[in-house]
């Protein structure tokens, strides 16, 4: 308590609460402690800090504010384990002891303060500060993702327009994906065709040095043609289906563009601005009429 000077408590009051509590801890010569795991010491520090706030709020001079902190710490220590009757007696005796350090008005204000806080909630103070608690604490560290920096208002757009643009982008991406899938399918069918032809002609190198009979040659050619026709047939079926899918996507994009939402007009000034707004209105009106005809 030797470092608890008027200048020290004044600095505690001038700081924000977290910094003020930390400065008060150093003035009291307390070692650093974990606020979560040592809740008793944290509550005690809060009580001493609140006594400073009370005294300054009542207009105590800084010398008396330091005395109020000292008074609070002594009262909490001396009443530990006492009954409420004993606590009231200790409070009265301590107020008499501080008559020479506080003027009468401030002494009465301090008496009211401790009656309305410490004595009124005495059992709670004793339960928290007077006995050991079996605390089971689990600390979980969570990562907080802050929202992205919003764009300037000038770069904003109506929600309906934004949704329309997003839908157009989705349809375009689906069309590109369909075309890529078609290319992959062609390559896969070509590989499958080559594999079937190789399986059909496992002994072809053996026939390179002899003349094939007409019937054997016709069978080989017919089987090769059959394999190519089947692969081509399968490829055409896939191409027709994917082409219809792509046309459907194009039709959806066309319909969306014809029924695109009208953006909210920006504030305009002057004749040129009015003409531009009028032209925009007419264009949108014509586009909607064309869509209805379709």
From TrEMBL:
Residues 284-294 have a biased composition (Basic residues). The gene is CUNH8orf74. Residues 258-294 are annotated as: Disordered. Pfam families: CLAMP (PF14769). This is Uncharacterized protein C8orf74 homolog. It comes from the Eukaryota. InterPro entries: CLAMP.
């Amino acid at each position: 308590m030797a470092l608890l000077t008027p200048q020290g408590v004044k600095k505690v009051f001038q700081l924000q609460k977290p910094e003020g509590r930390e400065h008060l801890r150093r003035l009291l010569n307390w070692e650093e402690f974990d606020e979560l795991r040592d809740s008793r010491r944290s509550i005690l520090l809060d009580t001493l800090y609140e006594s400073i706030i009370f005294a300054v709020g009542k207009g105590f001079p800084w010398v008396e504010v330091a005395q109020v902190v000292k008074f609070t710490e002594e009262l909490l220590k001396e009443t530990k384990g006492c009954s409420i009757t004993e606590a009231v007696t200790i409070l009265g005796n301590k107020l008499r002891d501080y008559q020479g350090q506080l003027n009468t008005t401030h002494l009465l204000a301090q008496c009211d303060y401790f009656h309305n806080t410490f004595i009124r909630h005495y059992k709670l103070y004793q339960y928290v500060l007077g006995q050991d608690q079996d605390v089971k604490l689990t600390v979980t560290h969570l990562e907080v993702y802050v929202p992205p920096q919003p764009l300037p208002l000038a770069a904003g757009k109506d929600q309906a327009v934004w949704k329309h643009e997003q839908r157009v982008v989705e349809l375009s991406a689906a069309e590109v994906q369909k075309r890529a899938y078609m290319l992959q399918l062609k390559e896969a069918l070509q590989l499958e065709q080559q594999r079937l032809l190789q399986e059909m002609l496992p002994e072809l190198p053996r026939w390179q040095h002899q003349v094939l009979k007409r019937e054997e040659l016709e069978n080989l050619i017919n089987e090769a043609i059959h394999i190519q026709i089947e692969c081509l047939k399968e490829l055409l079926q896939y191409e027709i289906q994917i082409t219809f899918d792509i046309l459907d996507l194009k039709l959806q994009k066309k319909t969306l563009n014809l029924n695109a939402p009208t953006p909210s007009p920006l504030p305009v000034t002057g004749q040129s601005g009015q003409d531009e707004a009028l032209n925009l209105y007419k264009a949108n009106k014509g586009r909607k009429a064309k869509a209805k005809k379709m």
